[in-house]
Structure prediction request, 114 residues.
Amino acid sequence: MKKILLSAALVAIALSFGGCAKHEMKESAAPAGDTTKQAYENAIAAAKSEQKKAAAVGGEWRDTGKMIKSAEEAAAAGDYGMAKGLADKAAAQGRLGQEQAASQVNAGNPSYLY
Prediction:
């Protein structure tokens, strides 16, 4: 019985590591779609706008600015596909930060702090 449980645990661990590796490869893959300089410029403008809106409501996420900077660096190197992908992710973080701030505007502190 112990051998069966040990085998099942090892299989579960192996599968979870396989899922993590697959997810990481997805994140680092170059995005598909329009990879022109104009598409990047539109995406970076949208990202900066969403970042500014999120900051205005107190919902700017930690990595949004880093993503924008990385997108600008990729564009400077001529990799507009990667730059646009990073700018799109930064814009999404800006929108999500705004939503998070709006949903938690009257959340208050947890009861254990009082």
About this structure: Confidence is low (pLDDT under 50) at residues 20-30. The first helix runs from residue 2 to 28. Residues 100 and 106 are 12 Å apart (CA to CA).
